[in-house]
């Protein structure tokens, strides 16, 4: 059972076809909590194994409209994971230095090394989203970026990086509720940003920009998943489930890698001892 | 009750005076597990608050002989913490570029920004430890480093960084047991390193180098703690306890910072709405 919708390579996404309120048929809220804890523990074990195997790395991209739950996903899905070997990179408005390079430069620097997991909270996809919506660069520049992104992700995949991309899909009404809720809670009011309301005025343009990005940049090896995200508990469950499902496929290979590394290390140790006895 | 020993500024540490087997009187193993879970949850809340307050940052340095449990501490003490706002930096043998700069250069680049927690797994202290033991630079160079470290940490503290340093104190026998255990476990053998056995031959020189570093570089504002670390469960408990104890002292201030940020954000929003209605 797929809890998030994988975008098939070459397909044309229409977000209106995907229900942000969706929660799989037989899942209740309380069952989901239990399930998430189980998946969290399994994810922790898989990350530990990936780290020890030192063969693949994992890049996880989270995108979505403001308030769609990128921060909450990180907090709830990855709270059991060992912080050693797990980095989170948030992409904000580029600094002057970043802006003076190509749009992939700042992202490339912080991609995960062998064994590591890196979560991108926003990413270079902003360069075909906010940049496209507000025409921050000429159209002839941003239109080239879809292909540049595909080539970049291909490079990462060829170098044993598992690339998974999640679009947190919420409705326009749900966003309004979440923005208003922040204003009413003194512990959350610091998250209130004038910019969020201003960007909300471009909702349709953003949805369109996402449709194009998801359609053009979902590939078999670096797929986009559309995650129904109006219900936070379901969003967390869907992402954890998808992730664990994908990583399970590597488990045997990683166990073999780890044991091979162990045998090599022991051989070196024996060699040292032999020489010490000469 | 202090579970780890704070090194008073200006004192002369003799590690032989500290029992690596120590576990506080009334703590049993099973009580400790429960206590660690409680402290972990509190730590999670405090980090969340620090992140939202956006005022202080936290630098946590872990040092200790090979196998002393730096990785294990990160895994067990910080496994509940939100990975967003928590980074782990491991310091290995310097790259050519790193070595072409002063010894603090590579560390300074990765110190935590406002609101963030960064854990250093090893640190610039290696430049007065391994470097001193093996004379990797002339004595006149490394002798200056104690003062340079103090000045560097003062800079960080002046800029609202909370600096806490933990020395994981194990016995020479315990190290041998742990090294041998790795050889016998096929899932852990990848951690076996010829270098660990080679460095073990310099045990006494390392202990001496640690004594000097702890004595010269423990200050009121950036203290060293000696953590009895022969028992892993006690080591985790002692570090979590110390950390939570220190951070609790900031709780009210952070709550006030967070609410102030909230009021500012709401004021900006009101201003925007007023202008929109003109």
Automatic annotation (TrEMBL), chains A, B:
GO molecular function: polyphosphate kinase activity
SUPFAM superfamilies with a match to the protein in the record: P-loop containing nucleoside triphosphate hydrolases
Coiled-coil ranges from the UniProt annotation: none
InterPro entries per UniProt: P-loop_NTPase (IPR027417), Polyphosphate_phosphotransfera (IPR016898), PPK2-rel_1 (IPR022300), PPK2-related (IPR022488)
GO biological process, one term: polyphosphate metabolic process
Record keywords, A-Z: Kinase, Transferase
Ranges of residues in domain Polyphosphate kinase-2-related: 28-249
UniProt key word rRNA-binding: no
PANTHER family per record: POLYPHOSPHATE:AMP PHOSPHOTRANSFERASE (PTHR34383:SF3), POLYPHOSPHATE:AMP PHOSPHOTRANSFERASE-RELATED (PTHR34383)
UniProt name for this protein: Polyphosphate kinase 2 family protein
